[in-house]
Amino acid sequence: MRRNPRDLQRYTAGERANHWIVGICFILLALSGLAFFHPAFFPLTQLFGGGPWTRILHPYIGLVMFVFFFIMALRFWRLNMIEPRDVEWLKNVNEMVDGNDQDMPEQGKYNGGQKVLFWGLVIGMLLIVITGVLMWRAWWTPPITVIRIASVVHAVAAVWMIGLIILHVYAAIWTRGTIRAMLYGTVTRAWAKQHHRGWYRKMTGDNS
Amino acid sequence: MSLQSLDIKRLSATTTPAPQARSPHSGEVAKLIDVSKCIGCKACQTACMEWNDLRQEPGVNVGVYDNPNDLTENAWTVMRFTEYENEATGNLEWLIRKDGCMHCEDPGCLKACPSPGAIVQYTNGIVDFHEEHCVGCGYCVTGCPFNVPRISKKDHKAYKCTLCSDRVAVGQEPACVKTCPTGAIVFGTKKAMKDHAEERIADLKERGFDQAGLYDPAGVGGTHVMYVLHHADKPSLYQGLPDEPKISPLVGLWKGVSKPLAMAALGAAALGSLFHYITKGPNDVSKELEDEMDRKDREAEAAAKENLP
Question: Does residue A93 fall inside a structural domain?
């Protein structure tokens, strides 16, 4: 990848480290959680040292993810407030999916889809951490009906989040030149001008 | 537990059929507990602990006869005592129920268990936990409509009554049946136990218990531990024996339809992404913008050179 001193800084080292801590936790949680969700995935417990170890580790990894997700959400929530131009963008999302991004409304640091993803993950994270604690039984056992509701909600929230993360990862692969933003922090000006023109203008002062 | 000599009908977290060629020609087994004959001596609790090598630490007296106060990983059966004032007859009735695993035909524990083979159902109907495969998640507790399994604090494995599957496998009756001094607990084929229950119910009805009946709840497909109750119209009188037990619809949702739906949704998201990429191609930065930035870089470089002294 071409490194140009005039590339734009999109993420600081702290933001990137935070993101990847959450990302690693998420992968471990998805693998261990799927192992308990469907028999087809039970062999994934072998990655964690067997069934009991998977059961022991999963909730603790979950707590680590929650803490770092919370810090990350604090870093980014202001940038993800939905604005009128995001609604316009979302209305035209079909064009975007079709690969015609030239007519999409101008976007700031995040587009409407990224903002929806952000809030979707925030909701999923809250549901999954609360229900996860209710299912844990490590120190305290709630009433059985509460555990049953929590079990269903935990599964739904997990599938919701894994689905969103599949889209998140795919969007990063699909939009070439994006992944480097989360690896070493910068993007090219051309990338910024094409995908996030509002943010590009703010960063460069170039209003052409 | 792996040395068991009973054929297995169903395994937890297993989506393919268990070996089915062999089946017991004597039919399924059942334990029948005639609550009206029980004197509350707790010999069954003692026999259970003796046969299964279990010792429950003595607890504290909380003012009731139940001892221990609840099922534990070391107490797989507990006599539950209820003092019932029957308003119709004006009698004080002492209802004593031997609590423990009901060995459901449709076991909620087995349905909920995520670990292949940790819970099995034998062809004779006994539901057994194979602790060496247990991961300690507690899903069996979540799935059970009778609140029976207990997770040990020491080893985090789930325990419950085995219906003495090891004894039954060699042609003996469960330890509690063997020891019961009044014959309140009997064991045999499910059919024989139902026939025996019929006689007992007829006898109870003659003695004025009009609502006497058999507790073999259809909501869980019937059970392999059945009760003869004097008040079969109100099972909950007997310390909360469920009136109409069935696997919670929440557990059904969690362990049923949600699995294929979730797998289909996630599979669609992953495959949809791949096929989107290979049909639409990547969302690349346009050549125009790349050139524009190159031009700007060259202009900036030239300007920098001019400004040099």
Answer: no
Which pTM value belongs to this model? Answer: 0.93
Please tell me if residue B280 touches chain A, with a CB cutoff of 8 Å. Answer: yes
For B245-285, write each residue's pLDDT tens digit. 999 999 999 999 999 999 999 999 999 999 999 999 999 99
Q: Is the pLDDT of residue B109 over 60?
A: yes
In Å, how far is A67's CA from the nearest CA of chain B? 23
Tell whether B3 is covered by a domain: no
Residue A93's Cβ-count burial label (10 Å; 0-12, 13-18, 19+) is middle
Note whether B182 and B296 are same-domain residues. Answer: no
In chain B, which residue's Cα lies nearest the Cα of A189? B293
B66 touches B81 (CB < 8 A): yes
> What tokens appear for B123 in the block?
């062809």
The DSSP result for B116-129, as a single string, is: TTSEEEETTS-EEE
Are residues A175 and B282, on separate chains, in Cβ contact within 8 Å? yes
Rounded to an integer, what distance in angstroms lies between the CA atom of residue A115 and that of residue A169?
A: 15
Tokens 């470089």 correspond to what residue?
B301
Please report which confidence band the pLDDT of residue B58 belongs to, taking 50, 70 and 90 as the band edges: confident
Instruction: Write down the pLDDT at residue B245.
Output: 97
Dist. CA A129–CA B296, nearest whole Å: 49
User: Phi and psi for B119 in degrees, rounded to 5?
Assistant: -125, 130
Length of chain B: 309
Q: Do A190 and B253 touch (CB under 8 A)?
A: no
> Is A154 marked active-site?
no
Query: B219 near B249, Cβ under 8 Å?
Result: no
The domain containing residue B300 runs over which residues? Answer: 258-306
Q: What is the pLDDT of residues B130-179, one digit of tens each?
A: 999 999 999 999 999 999 999 999 999 999 999 999 999 999 999 999 99
Is there a single domain that holds both residue B202 and residue B278?
no
The C-alpha atoms of residue B243 and residue B100 are separated, in whole angstroms, by: 16
Residue A188 lies in a domain: yes
Q: Is B164 left (phi over 0), alpha (psi -120 to 50) or beta?
A: left
Angle of helix A13-37 relative to helix A51-76, nearest 10 degrees, comes to: 140
Residue of A nearest to B300 (CA): A6
What b/e readout covers A113-122, taking b as 16+ CB neighbours within 10 angstroms? Answer: bbbbbbebbb
d(CA B145, CA B217): 11
